[in-house]
Design brief:
Shape of chain A: globular
Strand content of chain A: 25-35%
Number of helices of chain A: 7
Radius of gyration of chain A: 17 Å
Structural class of chain A: alpha/beta
Low-confidence stretches of chain A: none
Oligomer: homodimer
Distance between the termini of chain A: 17 Å
Number of strands of chain A: 10
Order of helices and strands of chain A: EEEHEEHEHHHEHEHEE
Strand order of the largest sheet of chain A: 6-7-8-3-9-10
Bound molecules: adenosine-5'-triphosphate, magnesium ion
Largest sheet of chain A: 6 strands, mixed
Helix content of chain A: 25-40%
């Protein structure tokens, strides 16, 4: 469903070019559960941005369902991201002026053009363990792990077929981590594709395939 | 060196009061290495803010070296924080307009009144595994784990006797985590006091004492 062909990402910096990704070849089949592991700074988040079409490669080609992203219009890419991809960011990326509830509701408003008149937003937040009271907190008024869980709920808002999770349990205790991994496992069992960056071997065990990246290159498959 | 007597922290919210800390009694001896563990949202970061005098309790008393913080002037508290405490934040709290180098140098400028004309800033960043090139990146241009390491280096800038670390290895792979725990262990062996929040049992093993917090209350000592 996603193919990366000879993809490189270079950041030109005063001290010298940073090769965040170096001629990467990588593909993900529909319905797979893949874990990506590797040292800090090795290129995992950069790879996730390529897979999720949040960034463009310096060279090489990315194909979504067989179609090259360079042949897609901006509108097509935006629609693809909004309709099919759920992205859980390493730094959560919540909107600080909105409450947890409004943050999760936001993708629904983007898709349907009006506020959520169902219980979906509330159900998603309940599923990640937030109380009705906590849903009214802004991110600043929530703990680190609560913010992480809100970003997980938000990624699931539009029922994505493709889940990209960048260290989804980094700020959670083991009991809560297991609950989140159960949710991801269920979603995968329903036929969705899951790609997860993790540095926790216990979390990686939930995946069917583990890919290791080092210095911007995939070192095993 | 730090005593909390019957400390409570209450956030009044529209949905009802949030009791982040509930009548907490807790003390830390000079030179101890204490780990604080507990579920997401249980009050760990709030407790750290109390210990580090970054926030005031709603009720109860905090004593630093026998002296109550309510009897200290703002200047005294600021000096205490700057001279003796190194704080590694759960969310890093780096200054986005400054480079990694400038972020670590900043506490040195606050203390000495001029830029660092020694190799201290560079040595600290080298110690946490950053290259000379990476030191010139702003936080946005660094990976999650690199940002976490910069915040660790910054906490050590003024050679603190009291280290407060809120999940210092949450974004790091196991090899890098071990390196950071070695650094904290060395600092402790030199006589410093270390208080560390972690949800990783492997990291907690480096401590001499583990304190568990649940729903704003300490449930063991
Ligand atoms: N400014 C605030 N206003 C209202 N409630 C708050 C505020 N800050 C924190 N809280 C609440 O206080 C409780 C404790 O928060 P705290 O950040 O100390 O938890 P924590 O143990 O560090 O959690 P985590 O492991 O997820 O980081 C949480 O339920 C949180 O929602
Ligand atoms: N905007 C940027 N400009 C310059 N260099 C960058 C930029 N973004 C990332 N980098 C560099 O690219 C490399 C890969 O970064 P990336 O965020 O993908 O790493 P990562 O594997 O996710 O690391 P971590 O496990 O620490 O999150 C790092 O060395 C980083 O410093
Ligand atoms: Mg990353
Ligand atoms: Mg916390």
């Amino acid at each position: 469903v996603v193919e990366l062909h000879d993809v490189s990402k270079i950041y030109p910096m005063p001290a010298g070019d940073v090769h965040a990704l170096n001629h990467v070849n990588f593909s993900i089949q529909k319905g797979e559960f893949v874990a990506i592991m590797g040292p800090s700074g090795s290129g995992k988040s950069t790879l996730m941005n390529m897979i999720g079409c949040l960034d463009v490669p310096t060279s090489g080609e990315i194909k979504i369902n067989g179609k090259s992203t360079s042949e897609m219009t901006d509108d097509e890419l935006t629609l693809h991201r909004r309709e099919t991809i759920g992205f859980i960011f390493q730094k959560f990326n919540l909107i600080s002026l909105l409450t947890a509830y409004e943050n999760v509701e936001y993708p629904l408003i983007l898709k349907h053009g009006h506020k959520d008149d169902t219980t979906r937003t509330r159900d998603l937040l309940r599923m990640v363990g937030l109380t009705d009271g906590q849903m009214q907190h802004t991110p600043y008024e929530l703990s680190g792990g609560q913010q992480q869980r809100v970003s997980i709920a938000r990624a699931l808002a539009n029922d994505p077929t493709f889940l990209l999770c960048d260290e989804p349990t980094g700020n959670l205790d083991s009991k809560m981590s297991m609950q989140i991994m159960e949710i991801l496992t269920d979603l995968h069992a329903q036929g969705r594709t899951v790609v997860m960056v993790t540095h926790d071997p216990k979390t990686a065990e939930y995946a069917e395939r583990i890919v290791i990246i080092k210095d911007g290159e995939i070192v095993n498959e």
